[in-house]
Fold this sequence. Notes:
There is one protein chain. The chain is mostly beta strands and about 60 residues long. The protein has one domain. About 5% of the residues lie in helices and about 35% in strands. It contains one helix and five strands, in the order ββαβββ. The protein has one helix at about 25; strands at about 1-5, 15-20, 35-40, 50, 55. The strands form two sheets. It has a three-stranded antiparallel sheet with strand order 2-1-5. A two-stranded antiparallel sheet has the order 3-4. The protein is globular. The two termini are about 20 Å apart. Zinc ion (ZN) binds near residues 10 and 11.
Amino acid sequence: MDRIMIKCPIKGQAVPTGILMERALFEDKDNVMTGIIVGPCPACGQNHPWDKTYSFLEGDPEV
Ligand SMILES: [Zn+2]
């Protein structure tokens, strides 16, 4: 399992979501993961929804 990171859209800082996911599932284009709320965000302190646009697996290049 890999840890999912998001790039905070407000601060532009990569933060861990605490969510683990298999890479194969994460990279499945049908798995859009919309509507998941991460919060409070460690970077900006707000709750904000995220999707794969802002997410990547830990160890991968940032989006
Ligand atoms: Zn944030």
